[in-house]
Design goal:
The complex is a heterodimer of chains A (280) and B (357).
Chain A: E1 27-38, E2 41-52, E3 56-60, H1 67-74, E4 82-87, E5 90-92, H2 97-102, E6 105-107, H3 120-126, H4 136-141, H5 145-164, H6 179-192, E7 197-201, H7 209-226, E8 229-233, H8 237-243, E9 246-251, E10 254-259, H9 261-266, H10 268-275
Parallel strand pairs in A: 3-8, 3-9, 6-7, 7-8
Antiparallel strand pairs in A: 1-2, 1-4, 4-5, 9-10
Chain B: H1 13-16, H2 23-43, H3 46-72, H4 80-97, H5 103-122, H6 130-150, E1 162-163, E2 167-169, E3 172-175, H7 181-204, H8 206-216, H9 218-223, H10 228-255, E4 257-258, H11 260-263, H12 266-279, H13 284-308, H14 313-334, H15 339-352
Antiparallel strand pairs in B: 1-4, 2-3
Classes of the chains: A alpha/beta (280), B mainly alpha (357).
């Protein structure tokens, strides 16, 4: 695993004409034998996989397979019963949300979790909170270091706004925005954190074709231009197979397949999980 | 036509992020400050001071404090009266223990004491939310008032009623029965201006965003690296600081003599909570509008009913209760987001006037 490798993406992606020049590095995040239980329900049962630097890693599976729970384990919202998480050169029995956020893990949510009462700009600026260090005294005066860092972070947030093409809604409270734009603002809030690893929980749920195309483009651009590692949950198989480098398939909390999109597509367990097995 | 930002270009982020980016707003603010600082002090008399301006300003300060907690951080509190009492009694203790201490510092320190008490009663907020937190803060209200009545140390082993000793600030008597209305007014106005400015700075910066993120979606806030307990406790501290200063000013400047059960009972908590709901949750301007509505409406109605129509004061009082109640309902139906939102909508319309869109 030591040497970096240029990935062969199996002929499915990248889209016609472009050449994949990304470099996929060593694993930056790995989970080993994770078990999550809620009361008597086992949400995740003994799942292990790793995520390499710079890749797009998809997690798929039927409803209730434990995909979102897996993301919640990764950024510390759920504490697993057993197993371990390897991240940033250390091994943890469970992740701490603050540690995850301050070490470059950002995420979006399946059901949009924006701050509805705040404007788009303020939502994105909230993503910069960890970068702002000025003390309470300067905050009271809005002067000196407080104003300086406010303006620096504003400049950074404006780059994200330009990237996502949401300039016209800068001052609009996000509660008033249509669904597709809210999803985009939520991605923007995660991007404002300058993440190394981006966890996306169904970024394309409920979108029409154009919105899906836009969102796919943003995800690929983030991945290619900034080298951000992306962990993606998505139900749209076309999107998953086109975007991702490797896919983990969960079913009833168990990992049933792991590999490139082509390998996963050919895997009999996956076909059975999605299509069902005939009993004759 | 008058209120329009067209042609007012912002060439850098600093200009875009200033408090009042629109030129007309600056003129309005300057006009208000000129009236408040240069005209009112010369025409003020005892009635205007004690019945209208001081109540308005004091409740604006307290409402601002509660709005930081409820409107910005989303933590409901019914302990306002109790925290005001903490401010009043700690300022009394400070004032009598250190007679040389300037009243400005007395009020600031009593704000600090209240902040400490507020943090203590804010601790449950990590575990309980919404109405349950409101009930927990209600405990603060009853406990604190009980304590100030039952522990003689707080009222210096005299009567349970405390009386503000006369104090001078910059050579002007601001506290006690002989105090000048103009001096009292300017003293309180100074606090109002400084602490409104600080509140505006806080809510538009990092601290305010962390509060609002906790209010709107605490799970997402936590995953962005905001620590919920520290953020909530900071809101409790700042909010209680303001409320405590308000309590101290009520005691020293406005009433002069208070008794915990009467001046700071549960009705005060509701009064301030109504003020911010009517004025607008999560709005600094709303705190002022709500305080004006709640504190001045009864006075205005009394003037109209008793002085102009000639009604018997007792009957007028009853009608006043009915009218204030129905006006509250009317405003809440008309604009549930408060008077501040009405003002905002008016401004948006004015921007386009005379065209509909």
């Amino acid at each position: 695993m030591a040497e970096a490798q240029v990935i062969d993406s199996g002929g499915v992606n990248p889209p016609s004409g472009s050449v994949d020049t990304r470099t996929i590095g060593d694993p930056v995040l790995a989970v080993e034998n994770i078990i999550v239980k809620f009361g008597g329900v086992t949400a995740i049962n003994d799942v292990s996989f790793d995520v390499r630097k710079g890749e797009i890693r998809a997690i798929i599976g039927p409803n209730g397979a434990g995909k979102s729970s897996m993301l919640n384990v990764l950024n510390g919202f759920y504490k697993p019963r057993s197993g371990q998480i390897k991240f940033a050169g250390k091994t943890f029995p469970s992740m701490d949300p603050y540690y995850a956020a301050s070490h470059g893990i950002a995420r979006t949510f399946q059901n949009i979790a924006l701050f509805r009462g705040m404007s788009t700009l303020d939502n994105l600026m909230t993503g910069r909170l960890l970068k702002m260090k000025s003390n309470f005294f300067w905050q009271c005066l809005y002067f000196g270091p407080a104003q300086k860092e406010e303006l620096e972070n504003r400049a950074h947030v404006e780059r994200v706004i330009d990237f996502l093409e949401i300039q016209p809604i800068r001052r609009t409270p996000v509660g008033r925005l249509p669904y597709g734009l809210q999803k985009r603002v939520e991605l923007g809030r995660a991007l404002a954190m300058d993440p190394d690893i981006l966890l996306l929980d169904e970024p394309m749920a409920g979108m029409n074709v154009e919105e899906k195309e836009d969102m796919s483009r943003f995800i690929m651009d983030v991945n290619e231009e900034f080298g951000t590692t992306v962990i993606l949950i998505e139900h749209d198989m076309g999107v998953v197979m086109d975007l991702s480098d490797r896919v983990v398939v969960l079913d009833y909390g168990v990992k049933i397949a792991d590999g490139t999109p082509d390998e996963v597509r050919a895997n009999q367990n996956v076909i059975d999980a999605y299509l069902g097995v005939s009993h004759d | 036509m008058l209120y329009r930002e067209t042609g007012q270009f912002k060439r850098n982020y600093a200009a875009d992020q200033q408090l009042f980016p629109i030129f007309q707003d600056k003129i309005l603010l300057a006009a208000i400050l000129v009236v408040a600082l240069a005209i009112i002090p010369f025409v003020i008399n005892d009635y205007w001071s004690k019945a209208i301006l001081l109540p308005f300003m004091v409740y604006a300060l307290v409402a601002l404090g509660l709005n930081i907690l409820v409107g910005y951080c989303g933590q409901i509190s019914l302990g306002t009266g109790g925290f005001m009492a903490v401010g009043a009694y700690s300022s009394y203790k400070l004032c009598t223990a250190f007679p040389e201490l300037n009243l400005i510092f007395v009020i600031l320190f009593s704000g600090g004491c209240t902040a400490a008490v507020g943090v203590l009663f804010g601790l449950p907020s990590l575990r309980i939310k919404g109405f349950y937190l409101a009930v927990a803060t209600l405990a603060a209200q009853f406990f604190l008032i009980w304590m100030f009545n039952k522990v003689p140390w707080f009222y210096n082993y005299e009567m349970s009623q405390i009386t503000a000793p006369p104090r001078e600030v910059f050579g002007f008597l601001v506290s006690g029965p002989q105090a000048e209305p103009a001096a009292q007014y300017l003293f309180v106005l100074g606090f109002i201006i400084v602490f409104t400015w600080i509140a505006l700075n806080l809510v538009r910066g990092r601290v305010g965003r962390s509060w609002m993120s906790i209010r709107d979606m605490d799970i997402a806030a936590e995953l962005l690296g905001i620590r919920p307990l520290q953020t909530k406790l900071l809101a409790f501290a700042v909010s209680s600081f303001y409320i405590g200063m308000g309590g101290a000013i009520i005691f020293h400047i406005w009433l002069g003599t208070v008794e915990a059960t009467e001046a700071f009972d549960i009705l005060q908590s509701f009064f301030v909570l109504f003020a911010i709901i009517i004025g607008g949750l999560g709005s600094v301007l709303g705190s002022f509008l709500g305080a004006a509505f709640m504190a001045l409406m009864p006075v205005g109605l009394k003037v109209v009913l008793v002085d102009w129509i000639g009604m018997v004061p007792v009957t007028a009082k009853h009608i006043e209760f009915m009218l204030v109640g129905s006006l509250i309902i009317f405003f809440l139906i008309k604009e549930p987001h408060g008077l501040a939102r009405m003002w905002q909508i008016a401004k948006e319309k004015l921007r386009l006037w005379p065209f509909p869109y």
